[in-house]
TrEMBL record:
The lineage of its organism: Eukaryota, Viridiplantae, Streptophyta, Embryophyta, Tracheophyta. The keyword Acyltransferase does not apply. Keywords: Membrane, Transmembrane, Transmembrane helix. The keyword Transcription does not apply. It comes from Escallonia herrerae. This is F-box domain-containing protein. The chain crosses the membrane at residues 319-339.
Amino acid sequence: MSCATTATNTATAHGGTAITCVHPDIIESHILTRLDGPTLASVACASPLLRSLCTEEKLWRDICYTTWPSINDPRIRNAISTFPGGHRSFFSDSFPTLRHHSKSKVDHRRSLPTTELISAVDIHYRNELIYSKVDVTETVTSWFRCSPFLVDLLDQKETVATPVNVINDGDIFLSQLEQHMTLSWILIDPTRNRAANISSLKPVSVQRHWLTGDVELQFSTIMAGGSGRGSSGFVQCKVVVTCGGEEGGVLRMREVNMQVQDMDEKCLKGEEILLILQEGMGSGERRKGKRGEGRERYEEYLEMKRERAERKKRREGKLNVVGVSVGFTILVTLILWIFGRLCTMLTR
């Protein structure tokens, strides 16, 4: 017996009303519109009727626009319209964040080349939107493929005010930023009709810059290195929000940028990024982790980097010892050879 039938029989036995007795328009207009994305997806599993109602494009479009205001943009609307399931597929790809910790065996280089990457960015503080931006990066140019990948959203003199006041507050506001600021950075591949959220949503690090004193919030997602990257292990999708105080004590965002680094902190080139993103979008999981899991994963990554650096240092130390030993041996051999030649000449 199906779970829907069981639920119906139970409701009837207790004098309740089966869901099939409620007019579909009432369900769709007054019940389903109040649900968030994960709840709506769960409700769709309850019965065939609910499944058909929960796949309505308008429901998912409204949920997507509420969750990510930036995607209500003509360029993104056009891209989502080509997704097989429309906004429902887009939500499934983008919520909550991408988890891809192991390399797949799929060779994405044989598939259609990605022509552009669309970034949809939303920053909230205490659930209030403070910044939203869409950026399009062309990926077919030789400059993109051969240069370090960097997306910088704010112009040089552009700043964005935040609701955070730093007057006579010491550094208490740093903990407030850590607790209440969230950032979503969705990368969309219109060629493959795939998307992924490469932000940790919550900051994994909030600290002052040692030189300028500006506040830097870092959001990070750790991913498996792309196929063919040898022993590079993992890469870090790193989003940095730089804030500084001005007259009046209002904290203002001065920089919002994203780049991808390997475990040696080298910024990867565009061509490398495409392979990693294509693999992550196609093979990665989308699931909500436990509270603080993003920071834990980031700290594990830092520990792996430290261990890697130590191994590299020990290996270089051994090579230096071998080099010195070989050089010393050659020098001694040369001296003995010269000494032998001199002795031979003197005995003649």
